[in-house]
Amino acid sequence: MVRLEGGTFWMGSDEHYPEEAPAHRVQVDAFWMDATPVTNREFRRFVEATGHVTFAEIAPDPADYPGALPELLTPASLVFEPPRRPVSLRDISQWWDYRRDANWRQPLGEGSDLAGLEDHPVVHIAYKDARAYARWAGKDLPTEAEWEFAARGGLDRAEFAWGDELIPGGVPQANTWQGAFPNENTLLDGYLRTSPVRTYPANPYGIHDLIGNVWEWTSDFYSQSHQGHADKEGCCAPRNPLGGPQEESYDPAMPGIRIARKVLKGGSHLCAPNYCRRYRPAARHAQPIDTSTSHVGFRCIVRGGPGGDGE
């Protein structure tokens, strides 16, 4: 883990997606953060020690999903499958497949495995799975403010975690999508899906993969903007702010479904200039707590504790 001394920084952005606004000053206390996302190797250790069964490995309870088609009530998770031709970017079903038996052990579904992926981030992780791992490890999940403070690496208000240019000098700084998403990836960074942690340079705080590779869970409930804790600045910047109430996290587009959503941060290997430009510290995304995918993982933190350079 890497020790971060905390401080005051500008959180959010007024220049991109509306949910990132308003930009505002925030204070966070000192904490330790995992230097990388949790890997398949590390998650396997947890499962072997505890017998934990992930959300994707359990058939959904029909009582929790009234009206769901029977074929959807099986152990499954969402897997990215690139189409072979250009498709409408308004129809995510063109590249997401709700695939039976896809889970952390079988990231592409039945017949796939983790051979060669031991040091890649674990994926197909629902919120409760991330929380279970964190508790077992004696850690916690970061708040959105803690996560964004770490991702910025002291480069306050910079566009990206490494500066103001997406690919400086033509050298990728993170595992993102190059080309026309979702059907064309030039593989400038060498990866169609996840990459081993530490493949790309650490940020100024010594932390890897905070941008790209996989989205990461935070503990905050999602809200449509930062309005709830963005009303003070300067000496009165809110300290260790939390997300909004659970009731405000429900998807307004689906009023009949009351499934809480948490904030994801960091973007993933599927973020592209023509779609989902969320490979930035300020970017945020709502994820239902019952939903796992092939591009969502997590990392942990420990708050407070003794100083030092890491462990």
Topology:
Blueprint (H helix, E strand, L loop, with lengths): L1 E3 L2 E5 L12 E5 L2 E3 L6 H11 L25 E5 L15 E5 L26 H10 L7 H9 L62 E7 L39 E5 L18 E5 L7 E2 L3 E3 L8
Parallel strand pairs: 7-10
Antiparallel strand pairs: 1-4, 2-3, 4-11, 5-6, 7-8, 8-9
Please give a handful of descriptors for the protein shown:
311 residues, 4-stranded mixed beta sheet, 3-stranded antiparallel beta sheet, 3 helices, 11 strands, 15% strand, globular
Give a verbal description of the structure:
The protein is mainly beta and 311 residues long. It contains 3 helices and 11 strands. A 4-stranded mixed beta sheet has the order 9-8-7-10. A 3-stranded antiparallel beta sheet has the order 1-4-11, with no helix packed on it.
The backbone outline, from C-alpha atoms, is globular
Strand order of the largest sheet: 9-8-7-10
What is the count of DSSP helices, taking H or I runs of 4+ residues? 3
The secondary-structure class comes to: mainly beta
Note the main sheet.
4 strands, mixed
Distance between the termini: 5 Å
- Taken in chain order, the helices and strands follow as EEEEHEEHHEEEEE
- The whole-number mean of residue pLDDT values reads 94
What helical percentage do the residues reach?
under 10%
Catalogue the unreliable spans. Answer: none
> What is the CA-based Rg, rounded?
19 Å
The amount of beta strand, in percent, is 15-25%
Count of extended strands: 11
